[in-house]
Write the C-alpha cells for this entry.
Amino acid sequence: MDRTLLPALAAFAEVAREGGFTAAARRLNVSPSALSQTLRTLEERLEVRLLNRSTRSVSVTEEGRLLLSRIEPALAVISQAVIGLDDDREQPAGEIRISTSRLAARQFIEPHLGEFHRRYPKVRLELVIDDGLGDIIREGCDAGVRLREAVADSMIAVPISPPMRLVVVGSPAYLAGRAAPQTPYDLSAHDCVAFRPGVQGPIMKWEFSDPATGQDFTIEPHGPFVTNADETMLSAGLQGLGLVQHMDCVVREHVAAGALIRVLDDWCPPFDGFDLYLPSREQMAPKMRALVDFLVEKRRALE
C-alpha cells in the first residue's frame, strides 16, 4: 500500500462522517476547496468515485461506503495509538533497556527496583549487564550506566552517584602481625587480590595519586589469587587472602562492621562517579524522564 494515501483516506472518512466539506474542513483546519481537491486527487489515484457531489450536498457512493467500512477500523486503531501517547505523558509507560556494569547495577539500580515499579507500574525495565564499555546504540539500549570517564563526549550524561573512591582494604586476620603499608610502594611486601577484567585481559593495575604532588600512578598487584568477578575479589579479601582495592561504596558496610580495615587512604583521592547516559535530551519520552528524575533523587539522598 502507498502510505502517502493515509492523510487523504483520513480526510475522506471525515467528509463521510460530517456529510459535507464545510464541517469536515473546519475539523481538519483546512479550507473546503483544499479538502475538495484532496478528495478529487484521491479518487483519481484510486480510479474510483467515492463521493457524489452537487451544489447543495455530498453523498458517499457505494464504492465509497465499501472503502469506508474497510478503513475506519484501521483509522480507529491509529487514533487510539495517538491518544495512548497523550496518556503516557501523564502516566509513563513502555520498556527501557539499560546497559549497565554489574557494580553500578548492584549499587545504584537494584536496591530501588521495587520502589521504581511501585511508582511507575507501566514501565518495564530491562537491565543488560555488561562490564565492558557499553555501546548503547549498537546494543539497542535506550541508556547506559558507566563511570563518567568511560562515557563518550557525544552522550548526554546525568550523574547518578556521588563522587567515588578506590580504597585499599584488608581483613584484621590478614593485617595481624604485618605492618600496614604506608605508601603504595610497600605493596610489594604484601599479598594482593588481583582483578582481571574479562577472560583474557591483563590484570587491572591499582590506581593511586601522590598526596604531595598530585601525580597519578599505578601499581601492579601480586598475590595468591586472581578473579574476574568483583564479588569474589571482595570475598577473598574478607577471608584474609590479601589486600583488595575496591570501590568505597562496596566495602563501606564491611569497614563499619570491622570486617575490613582501610589502608593508604591518603593515596586514594575521590573521582567522578557513575552517570546515566543517553544519546539526546530532545523529545525525551516520559518513561525515560521518570527514570532520570528517580535516579537523580536517589543520588541526592546519598550526598
User: Anything to note?
Assistant: The radius of gyration is 31 Å. The first strand starts at residue 51 and ends at 53. Residues 62-90 form the longest helix (29 residues). DSSP finds eleven helices and 14 strands in the chain.
